Amino acid sequence: MREETALELAVGLLQLPSRVRALRDAPLPRDVDALLNIVTDEGRSLADAARKTGLTERTVSDAASFYIEQVLLHPGADSYRALGASADATNDQLRRNMALLLRWLHPDREANSGRAMYAGRITEAWNNIKTAERRSAYDATRNRASARTASRGASAGSNAAPGSDEVRATVRPARSKATISTSRTGTGRRMARRRGPLWRIFELLLAKVRRKGRV
């Protein structure tokens, strides 16, 4: 099966925003930097993308911007994703992506845009990994966090030990016959209410038959 391009994913997300959760959890497409080129019109990328997709330049630009905002710059994204790159990206790639993202956010491009709030997120991401020392420290912290998350997931999956139902059954307090009878009656009434008036009529008729049978 052919892997979707970054532009195809971006256009699909614009048309179906409910995909955002799945895209946030998925690895970034290999050509995600194409979206950065589109939003800054690097080398007339915007016109080329519009021609390839048959969409207007405005639609293509909106799709690329929406993908960047929702998938790259969401609050849970790590510094690599925020810069539109994977953890094995070179320093030059990271620097270039950072520059493109800040160019996209520049007020001269869209003075009334509310996207300026993302500038701090991008500069923070770059500061975390811009030198070999900082990147090494960041990677160590990131790996520890991933290990803790995986450990919590494994613990949650193993909480229900085999035979736990039997253990709970042995320690369940005994109930008197009166309590059981009352409980059953209450349960029957609740079930009757849920089943509607026809069921209640049936219950009444059944009760009359039972009384006649005892006479």
Oligomeric state: single chain
| Rg over alpha carbons | 30 Å
Determine the strand fraction and express it as a percent band. Answer: under 5%
User: Which range best describes the helical content: under 10%, 10-25%, 25-40%, 40-55%, 55-70% or over 70%?
Assistant: over 70%
Total domains: 2
Largest sheet entry: none
Gross morphology: globular
- Terminal CA distance: 75 Å
Structural class by helix and strand composition? mainly alpha
* Number of H- or I-type helical stretches: 12
By DSSP, the count of extended strands is 0
Low-confidence stretches: 160-185, 190-195
Order of helices and strands: HHHHHHHHHHHH
Please, what is the average pLDDT?
Answer: 80
Secondary-structure blueprint of this entry?
Blueprint: H1 6-15, H2 20-25, H3 33-40, H4 45-53, H5 57-72, H6 79-82, H7 91-105, H8 118-129, H9 132-157, H10 164-171, H11 177-195, H12 197-214
Helix pairs in contact: 1-5, 3-4, 3-5, 3-7, 4-5, 7-8
